[in-house]
Automatic annotation (TrEMBL), chain A:
InterPro entries per record: MoCofactor_Util/Proc, XdhC_Rossmann_dom
Matches recorded under Pfam families: XdhC_C
Residue span, XdhC Rossmann domain: 101-244
Top-level taxon in the UniProt lineage: Bacteria
UniProt protein name: Xanthine dehydrogenase accessory factor
TrEMBL record, chain B:
Domain of life: Bacteria
Domain named XdhC- CoxI: residues: 15-78
Entry protein name: Putative sulfurylase small subunit (Molybdopterin cytosine dinucleotide biosynthesis)
Pfam families assigned to the protein according to its UniProt record, in alphabetical order: XdhC_CoxI
Species per Swiss-Prot/TrEMBL record: Cytobacillus firmus (Bacillus firmus)
Amino acid sequence: MQLMSRNLFAQLEKSINNRKDTFLITITDYPDNKTLGAKALLWPDGGFCTDDSLLPQDVKDLLIAQCSKLVAKRRSGAVKFVWKDSKIECFAEYFPAPLHLIVAGAGHVCEPVAEMGRMLGFFVTVIDDREEFANRERFPFASEVVCQSYLHYFRNVDISEKTYILLLTRGHKYDVLSLNELLKRNSQAGYIGMIGSRRRISGVFKELQQDFPDESFDNLYTPVGLDIGAETPAEIAVSIMAEILKVKNQKSGNSLNTQIKKYAKMGFHEGAGKWTKCSS
Amino acid sequence: MDQMQLIKRAMEVRKGGEKAAIATIIRTKGSTPRKTGSRMIVFPCGRIEGTIGGGCGEAEVIEKALEVIQSNTPSQKRVDLTKGLFFEDGGICGGIMDVFIEPI
């Protein structure tokens, strides 16, 4: 068996692009050399497919059963078992679905955000209701560009803790409308960031509180981004993506050198406050 | 996506008709330079793409991979990094890893 058929590889790519957790299984020990290296795909919902026609059905069933622990833990690993007095070993490799970054509002800030999002490994969707903004030419780096009303999009899109949403729309009524849909959903996004001035934000909250008086907005970050003095679209994108990473990785977002300061009394002064600020 | 990169590359190499082998770490024990799922492509001339951790262990795997290219049959190689330089005084060099090598 040679590596993997083009068809199976395409299925693996498609599955990840569709944001599905996927396991690639390789037979790494088998009584018959012809089956050594055979590949299969396994999904947490029990879905299974292989490009090896020589694999007996009961071995397939055993593979699925033996890998179930790894699948439940979402971890890669090798599993050994016995079938008809022969040793079989398989390697189940976990391909986690990429996190989904949804950027609503395809304006200036959206461009660097979409590009950086891809750099950081997110599946990036750009959504806007205006065709002249939501198009491929403006967003060659996005994984997907959707031209649809915010209301319909946020009513139907899959939402989970792996979904990161940015509201960069052109007016606060679109933010209200989007948040309205998102708050009605059963599942919660991992992060919702909303760009805006203090006035715009208080306007949005006032309107939302009428319909959702008990909502605490725990996962809503607004104004969006970390405090790094960002002004240009690219700078704002850095500030936003830094905040998203901070939330994803559950870190403080502080400069790492605050920890180093503790060592200053031992005579270690790097970054401990002696730098003269560069003014350029 | 990083994890897919070498598989994608291997598919390209095969499409181009070039012979090669791909090595994948399938199991680690103790301290190893790279994790399970790390890959390396080995070409018949000994050139590599990607790494499974470098050093003597990697050299052993490259040697085995050349055999795999010859025989066109997948094989496994156990790399024992505990028998390192300082093995005599306690084995600071780390762990063991199992590597699966298959022709592309």
